[in-house]
Amino acid sequence: MALSRNEDQRVSLHTVERLSVYRRKLEELSHEGVEFVHSHQLATMVGVTPAQLRRDLASFGSYGNIARGYEVAKMITTISRILGTDKLQNVGLVGVGDLGRALLSYRGFEERGFHIAAAFDIDPAKVGRLFAGRRCYHLDELEPVIAQSNLRIMVLASRPEGLQDIIDRAAAAGVRAFLNFVPRTTVTPPGCFIERIDISAKLEKLSFLVKQQEQCT
Amino acid sequence: MALSRNEDQRVSLHTVERLSVYRRKLEELSHEGVEFVHSHQLATMVGVTPAQLRRDLASFGSYGNIARGYEVAKMITTISRILGTDKLQNVGLVGVGDLGRALLSYRGFEERGFHIAAAFDIDPAKVGRLFAGRRCYHLDELEPVIAQSNLRIMVLASRPEGLQDIIDRAAAAGVRAFLNFVPRTTVTPPGCFIERIDISAKLEKLSFLVKQQEQCT
Q: What is the ipTM of this complex?
């Protein structure tokens, strides 16, 4: 069955997040040699209802026939295309501290279609050096390097000081989306997106849940 | 005004997540020397409505008088107590790869009340060594070290293989909450909590948003 043409229509962010989850599971299945999967099986594996899964996928077309289930490899390709990660895209990184270096060494990014093409810092001991094969530029060179490497997405792992200024400069130079690990509130420039990962806040939430549970038992 | 006694009543997870955000902003303010803040100011700074902020805080008591606003230092202390992070608590870490080492070196955890007390790996080159001052144990020693260090929270940054087994063993040994960086679907043991941080999925979401925006302009 052919894919329908409505792949790129506007879908909700929740759907997009679930697509990532489906793809991850499908990649696990593919790795294990599974070629077909039924919607109710996949739904159970990722913890959504079969109706939810079918709705999410219906917006993007068909992935197989009902008798054999969805075709795993085809679904992975289609979801990648929907997410825009079917071709490797360049990403920038601000801050080559412990976290920044960990991200530079993390091979999972490339597997998912992201290549950290350039890193930025202000530390003279880091500027000009290669980290995991990627050059560290001075933050002063942010604008030309963004243009050169066609960076649309920037990962922020710097110190909090001056973060907003970096975001504003990067946005003015063409960056459209930021993945922010820095625990500092930020203002999103017009036409841009910021996703935040606050590791400590997640730990605080877990700490709260454990405390609450201990008090109730 | 004294704090009321209903600090520990059950609150929604969304409230808990917002409390982390409020505390972060309050710490920024405190750092800048601000002693009092009005609820509408704080609400604007963190991007919630003043009504939402007052509702969130009302569950836990009073933080100041209306004329001067909330008392910043007192709010920080109270929120920390609610989150269970007013005393440093030991946390475990499974996987001393790039990400694991970055987490071990990250000073932000201690500031927020979390101390990675023990790390685990199976690599003979790592077991027995110190990383940022913390000992790396063999995974075989998971259970005794959990008991010894009274670990209730475990950070997962290992390879995907065997992840579920590690979770189940840790849960049986007393761990109640997991912060999972490993891109693999997991089953949550009864009475436990798992929070997932999927860095690649966040990038995929941003990639989708950027792609969608480019198609619409």
A: 0.84
